[in-house]
Amino acid sequence: MNQESFRLLRDFIYDKSGIFFADNKQAQLETRLAQRLKVNNLSDFDAYYDLLKYDDPASDELHSLFDSVSTNETSFFRSPPQVEAFQKKVLPDMLAAHSAAKKLRLWSAGCSTGEEPYTLAIIINEMLGAAASEWDIRILGSDLSPKALRSAEQAVYNDYALRGVSAEIRERYFEPQGAAYRLIEAARKLVDLEHFNLSQTETLEVGEGFDVIFCRNVLIYFDDELKRRVVSKLYDSLKVGGYLFIGHSESLHNISRAFKLVHFPGALGYRKE
Amino acid sequence: MLSNIQKKLDHIDEIPTLPTVAIEIISLAQSANVQMNKLSEVIHRDPPLAAKVLRAANSAYYRRSDVEVETIQRAILMLGLNEIVNLTSSISVFSAFPTAGQDAQSLRYAFWNHCVATGIIAKYMAKKFDLPTSGQEFVGGLLHDIGKIVLDEFFHEDFVQAHDFAVERGLDLIVAEREILGTDHAEVGAILADRWRLPSYLKDVIAFHHVPAQATAKEVTAVVSIANQLAKSLELSCGGGTMGFVLSELEGWQLLKQLGHPMDDIDIERLTFELGDMRQEVASYISSFGAGGG
Q1: CA–CA separation, A214 vs A85, rounded Å?
Q2: Which residues, at least 6 apart from B95, have a Cβ–Cβ distance to it below 8 Å?
Q3: CATH number of domain containing A22
Q4: Min Cα separation B273/chain A (Å)
Q5: Same domain, A45 and A176
Q6: Containing domain of residue A51, as a range?
Q7: What ipTM does the predicted assembly reach?
Q8: A74 is a domain residue
Q9: Are A266 and B235 a contacting pair at CB < 8 A?
Q10: Greater confidence, B7 or B292?
């Protein structure tokens, strides 16, 4: 892939999905798209760009492209800078702000097989320690896929899903189950799993009053109009002062100006004012 | 307290100094008609510097073709005046205040990484926003925190205490410095800028990068002040706990807006992603002239 083709594809992907590939991520993009070239029987990236731009009326290839470029795998403590921003700044601030009401509401929208909401549960449990029982904490995990949710319900994970977990956390929060590990009840019980389709904004009833929403690598699949509606729904579901985290290199630049964009070390967050 | 520190500084003979050749090149870049010959002559006067310039010109970071750059004149033509000034300044500060022998976790090491990151980001932003700061941003970024070097060398215990205090309380280092030392790195840096006879824009950047509206050279100081924050958010902070800030609310950002720059049109997310992994960028820049290590 030459620099020209890289820039064309990079800008196209950013425009359509809000995911950005920095100049030093060219090799990564190349690797991820090589498979798409093969499937489409194309010899070079320019031909692939033409296919996307002029020959993909139903956006089928576009969706396959999104699958390839988004980090579609899930694991515990995925994307450490975002998790750290939550752990070191957002959560401590919220616990301090809600120390009287002792109530916390989080939402992992597009939680897939549960790694994200359970990661949040572990972090909160770690931070509150024995005081956790005095708090009213609910973490909503929602997904489009009933199959993924059934798996989340089991809360059984292999080594690969746990590769970002320290030995100490693994020891205290997981119990061996065959060759795999099951998350312990104390963390599981903080999470409510629900099936719904985020894109059906008309009928979507999730309530409001969330302190933090994680919605990572979900919006990229929606067109701008749907993105706006979903993001506005997420905005309404947040408390004032609450945060929305989207995927690591995702952007809401052309979608919403309602939030305050906050720079954390290595991560961006969107705050409702 | 500042006057005490001023007095103490007046009596310290071994105050670190930038090599005269660096100051000469920085000043030379200020004049309207810089002559290549003059610039090349100054670089040649310092053979180790000249060797490092050539090394950099042939490094993966700068190299543009297969043809080896063998002369300083060629390097100047290839890199351009601004980049030569940036490069020679970097080489000079790294040789005057070496990080070699310090481990990668040391304050000194983190310090220069942060300064280089600030320079690279400031340069990138000036280009991106088309600011008329004529290539001053990189050196501004590189030297903005120079006061910390003096504090670290001559008031080491207090400075470390200020650093720990900042981390512990989640304060900006500059606030902690005032608390513990009664002065701060911006004030001390300004004294140093006078001593080194740095151009006035650099003194402005050094003295006002936390309060850019007070600077005379407003644009370059504003850009460096923003780059300073961004460098921290790209995980290259040097002391203090800036955990979360709103870029568009920074004083420097607001200042550029008041000066008529279309800041509201900027895609901040994209800008942040474009800057990408600064650690990688900084490491490859520093290794281009063979400094760094740890």
Answers
A1: 12
A2: B19, B48, B49, B291
A3: 1.10.155.10
A4: 6
A5: no
A6: 3-69
A7: 0.86
A8: no
A9: yes
A10: B7
